[in-house]
Specification:
CATH class of chain A: Alpha Beta
Number of helices of chain A: 16
CATH topology of chain A: TIM Barrel
Strand content of chain A: 15-25%
Structural class of chain A: alpha/beta
Largest interface: A-D, 76 and 75 residues
Largest sheet of chain A: 8 strands, parallel, barrel
Shape of chain A: globular
Number of strands of chain A: 17
Oligomer: homotetramer
CATH architecture of chain A: Alpha-Beta Barrel
Strand order of the largest sheet of chain A: 6-7-8-9-11-12-13-14
Distance between the termini of chain A: 67 Å
CATH superfamily of chain A: Aldolase class I
Chain lengths: 384, 384, 384, 384
């Protein structure tokens, strides 16, 4: 027998929630959907709709940036992928679309071994600026020191530094890592950083002087980080925590740094819930990958997929049966919420009496069981 | 590194429950089912059974109102749909029933573009009154000012003003919205308003002078509001919250305003749980859409389905293998609770020792895992 | 706007648990399985194994009672069913086994319309006593006054009065109901009553002088009470609550009245958990219905199934690929826990260091997610 | 009516969590994956990677021990199985692999009836030592007194005494059981004991002088203990509780006894979570059973499976489409986390800013809903 007098210390776990776990409660006041304001700002740039397209090769190319600009949103061009590695990316994208499921991971690993070309980085920025669109470019932390000046010089407007997980403090013995506070001073462009999911990590990032934070680790449809690494926080909880960091930072500094929920948003309901949880904008991938205009040609994959030794994510066949305009504004005959996202957001804001995005942050939410069981009932009882 | 001295404020979420999440605990006293009283009142009208039929085109037409009146319940006629738009609604209903799944949403969007005719509104009311039935008419908030006087003049007994979400305060810059307190003074008919799901929204509505509140946003079988908009509260929680508002209002004013759980009720068990959660009556749609007498001809759809730009809900094939009388009173050989709702309610009240609906509100309930897993066992272990 | 000063009173719901929601934690001490004592007592009768067979027509006939007696357990003969209605019940059971799924509910409704014959009640009791077995007979509350004296006179040992839900106080205006305290005085046999699921209902029943309580409403495999009526409490919570009532009653009176978890037990794991939750014995139906010796001939149905107006439950095809001895004692090559229940109980008691059933009541349990997801993994990743 | 004055005592249940119920939260600091240290120690032995292979006949034979040694991990040879019962175990393993699903449980029951031969025990140890590998041998408690000296004499390095459930105190009237404190004094080899799942059981075991504790009851892919016996604790909770015991023991004695999470680990994500929960190493079975090198020849089964009277577990077909090196170090084109476990662990440690395993114990975790629902979305909405 042993003495057990020491008080044991057990690790404590906090409950977290994803889109399917919550629902928005209608407000005590309602408002006409056509009278709500959905504006969103990054630095000095204002967007009519708080929608960004993910910096993924299957989602955004130069044409998509231009198209989305005209519709009031912001497409972020990934310059860590095929657009910066190949003079003719369409040829490569065609090849990926035609690969079989069995071959595609190996093909992607090979495609992304091709080095990034500095001149292509400048060319892509100029093509966007020439069309008159706001130009947001995504780089990885490892490439930022080298490529950010090229982006700025070519006329880039917003820099997005994006990694699977980002922190203000990165430890490395072999090289001097990217220091965001230094980068913010060196660059004139507002810098958006991500992804992060926790209160303290988000708050630390904001203190480096950045202009926006992408929220979300592990939730995307093309992402299997939680299976492979066990890492990830469901998006409602991640958004609530980072929104709290933004509000704390605002209280301390009077600077309002927007957060952008990024990943896992598939339906209008998900998007409305992200805003009720506190986000300022959403970054969507797979819904745009499904449009005719998307560079993925009906396929969608993530940037962790081609990792040479530890691939995460899958290439998902998503089809091309819709258009960017329908996805954002409808009209639609699709009843499951995969089209008319802006209409859905306006309607939900109306139900919550929210005149603008900041008021939508105050909407009540409940933890609610998923709807799936109700649907099953019909399969069981249908008599015909 | 940043200072993190400010106390972070995280959004708080309350747990909520639907029918499948709870179960009724039998009482310490039991009572004979044939000795319980199931009466229900709206204003001066008393109903032998606390069952209302949903104001949906697939559920209620003039004949259904008359049929249900004879059985002791109340059918609410929807005068925002085909009954008020077409002189011969049966022709249109036939067309909807024959449409393919692929075409039906577009067809519904077209069918509901036809304007509402004032003369048809009066005609439907008169047809019901001529048959000697209590006449309850449902209108949307947008049409109420124009059509409510026509309903009253034609002899309507009860007015139901129904929208996806209803609040006592609606904000609109472009027009002067419907003010329930004014409407209640103008009309002689008792006014039932819905739908709402929260304590404060329900309490505010009661203070406008209305005669009943419909409870439920997002739960119906033909409704996809939660997928499209993220909005909705599971019915047990919605009913508990609105029942608390009714009891608060009664304490303050000594007026007892009934609440009616509306949507998502598919089986006898759901109905019994709604009463244990505190409702005074239930409004059912899909179980009645399944009867031979239903105007839907074996199909069921919701009023948000035909929305021109943001359709929500699906047309569900429900068949016509039962009758209204069987659904309400049996006898039945169906063992899954889709028939003999009144018998089920009486039996459950007996198990809880509840002599009337108000006593049934005091029945204990537990949060209980769904039954599905137990059923699966047989599929796995069946050896024959 | 309304005043909302009154404190709202929301209905509170307690969490409840079923077999699949919990798991037993091994103890700090272990014991050899062959050294545990599984004895169980009702009144003066002692049983080597704490297993009773359900009073259901598909589970127990006279032969099953005798067979189970030899193995150390107790079969309860249902004298509200075919055994008391037909001189030759096997003929009827054969007919039920041969009926199609579509016809069986109507057939059962007809079969159970045949009246109960007093002489058959006596005959069945005598047949059991002639074979030297302990004779436990189950009656419904409605028939108890008339038939209990016949059972006692014919030599019955234990009387089980069983209904879907049983309380010590039953309200009826039309007739004077069964009063358990009076019945206990009139009869010499110990009386077991059920079913009940809550602390206060169980405690009240014990105060009437009864000798045992059956625990469980709604959980059985052949039962759909929760779907039809919404009534039912998962068995782990029901057992924990009634065990607390038993312990309270013991503290107050020094009389130990056993409780028997009845229904929903399908695997060895369920049975072990019931004992860890506090039961003194288990009553099993479907596992015995699956034996070659069962009167159900490979089919299983509940006593609520033939209700003339509100049938609940289904006839389940369970097969006859095992024997009573294998189910109770093995040996077995079945790996999913559907055979060798006594071996499983002894092993689990060994893991918990429980030398007898009362020590097993002290075993720790955790709320644990079901195992199903782990099994799914192989279907997904199997490469061959 | 009864008096209910005594305060009822209800059994309390603690919530528990498995791998699928939690997720790791990225840290506020990140670190380069190639700069983390994954070392692990048992007694004086240090291993480059904290991976042990399960002492199961389908996972480890002499060759696997040698192979795994070269890669930096530790294979534990089961000397309660075919390796100690048959001079030519490959012949038997071949037979098991060729048996049909219907016959395999009976075959296994027969195969494991063959007695253990003392000379084979010594031979296996010598074969491992001859190859220069660290030799860890697993015995059951019943065989330990007889076989442990043979293992030690033949040159064994580490002794693993393993049972389904292990406690420091075992009660038996028929024989004097194994006393770990005595065994630890008699043997020079460090002794690893398991399996256990609770704080007090683990702490008591540590006080006997052992060198490591295996954590896990009931979670393995080839294990059905929870179905058959109801016994088992999900691995995250078991690991958290035993880690707390290890920390308490360290505080009391300044001796650091490692714990090893054993069972249920299928993907990289599971492994990373086990370390975040507090484990010092993991013992994996089915992922290694899937390699070309595994003795199971594409099949996997547990040691409780062949129990003569109460078999638990199933033989699972796992295939042989990978290699030990790929499972541990990649590179891989498999995207679901079943290969490159060390790479996954290093990456997750990088995300959490953990420079070594002990720092990884401090990583935050959240309770998170499983990912499955997100995957289902595509099946539903795919339009092509």
């Amino acid at each position: 027998m042993c003495s057990t007098k020491a008080t044991p210390k057990f690790k404590q776990l906090k409950q977290s929630y994803g889109f399917d776990d919550v629902a928005i409660v209608p407000g005590d006041v309602t408002i006409n959907p056509d009278q709500v304001d959905t504006e969103f700002q990054i630095g000095k740039f204002t967007f009519a709709i708080p929608f960004m397209a993910s910096a993924m090769d299957s989602v955004v190319d130069v044409n998509m940036v231009i198209h989305l600009h005209k519709l009031g949103g912001l497409g972020v061009l990934n310059l860590d992928g095929v657009q910066a590695r190949y003079a003719n990316p369409d040829e490569i994208l065609e090849k990926i679309a035609k690969a079989s499921d069995a071959d595609v991971t190996a093909l992607l690993q090979q495609v992304y071994r091709e080095p990034i070309k500095d001149n292509l980085v400048g060319d892509r920025v100029k093509a966007i600026k020439k069309a008159g669109a706001i130009c947001a470019i995504s780089l990885t932390p490892a490439n930022t020191k080298r490529l950010a000046p090229i982006v700025q010089e070519a006329g880039g407007d917003i820099l997005v530094v994006q990694s699977t997980v980002t922190s203000a403090r990165h430890i490395s013995k072999s090289y001097r890592g990217l220091i965001f506070s230094e980068l913010c001073k060196q660059m004139k462009m507002p810098i958006v950083v991500g992804n992060c999911v926790s209160y303290t990590a988000c708050l630390e990032l904001m203190h480096t002087g950045i202009a926006g934070v992408l929220v979300g680790v592990g939730p995307g449809a093309a992402c299997t980080s939680r299976e492979v690494l066990g890492v990830g926080v469901p998006q409602i909880t991640a958004t609530i925590d980072c929104a709290a960091a933004r509000d704390t930072y605002y209280k301390e500094t009077k600077k309002y740094i927007p957060i952008i929920t990024d990943g896992g948003l598939r339906k209008g309901g998900d998007i409305c819930k992200a805003f009720a949880a506190g986000t300022d904008a959403v970054m969507i991938g797979s819904p745009i990958a499904q449009t005719k205009e998307a560079p993925g040609r009906g396929y969608h994959w993530g940037m962790s997929h081609p990792h040479p030794a530890l691939p995460r994510g899958t290439r998902v066949k998503v089809g091309t049966n819709t258009t960017l305009e329908k996805v954002l504004f409808g009209p639609t005959s699709v009843v499951h919420g995969t089209e008319n996202f802006v209409g859905a957001l306006r309607t939900a804001m109306g139900f919550c009496g929210a005149a603008n995005i900041k008021e939508m942050h105050n909407a009540d939410m409940v933890i609610a069981p998923a709807l799936s069981t109700e649907g099953k009932f019909y399969q069981m009882t249908q008599k015909v």
